[in-house]
Amino acid sequence: MTVSSSAPKHIAIVMDGNGRWATRRFLPRVAGHRQGVESLRRCVQACLDRNVGVLTVFAFSSENWDRPAEEVSGLMSLMVSVLAKEVPKLHANGVQLHFVGELSALSEKVRGGLLQAEAATAGNSRLVLNICFNYGGRWDIAQAARKLVAAGEAVTERSLDGAMALAHCADPDLLIRTGGEFRISNFLLWQCAYTEMYFSDKLWPEFDEAALDAAIADYAQRERRFGKTSGQVAGAANTRAASSG
Questions:
Q1: What is the Cα 204 distance to its own chain's centre?
Q2: Which of 95, 174, 235, 239 has its CA 20 to 30 A from that of 185?
Q3: Active-site residue identified among 16, 140, 171, 173
Q4: What is the pLDDT of residue 2?
């Protein structure tokens, strides 16, 4: 069997388990989200250290508005404080920020902070960090189709791909979901057509560098065929090896 010869260039993560982490410690759920920010900080640094080119994380889904109002309000306040604290550090580390989702539904204060962070880091190239906020995979496909129709363009697979919210980067190689759940919950439905999936029992605040390395090691053992046979994949790999040698 031919296995993946390199680390994933684009990792996507469903950061699940913040609320459960807090509840098990008799803490308010927002305390779990604060701890989740610490885990994201570690993950960003780990991706920088491992030369991962793109990291995409699911921070707030379009369905999360249905959570208790206190939790939603806490998440919005947390986003504002995190932006003020973390953006200068991310900028210094060469991280390019993108906030992906229906941003028009956010308050002017939150939306303005997101746009400022994007502008401040636009010239960076060490790591592209996509933060999906008020995002849903079905929304993404629908907004891409509306954009094409409004422009009078034909709706094809190729044109849709170019109109998606993550058109600025290649599709994820590896999707990780923490928290012990086995679903992708309306995350990157279009982009994950051939993405390798990895599910971790760890709650997101517990997900550390060793857990990321375990996911990457598992990915390295996968055979990525993209519709081809194992023989075709092996033949292509041998051809590339011969030409590079």
A1: 13
A2: 95
A3: 16
A4: 41
Paired tokens of 166: 């993550």
Distance in angstroms (rounded) separating the CA atoms of residues 237 and 162: 28
Mean pLDDT calculated for residue range 195-208: 98
Of the candidates 64, 93, 124, 186, the residue annotated as catalytic is 64
Q: Is 238 a catalytic residue?
A: no
What CATH fold (topology level) applies to the domain 10-240? Undecaprenyl pyrophosphate synthetase (3.40.1180)
Cα separation, 185 vs 14, in Å, equals 8
What is the arithmetic mean of pLDDT over 150-169?
A: 97
Domain borders along the chain are 10-240
- Closest CA relative to residue 176, chosen from 12, 36, 53: 12
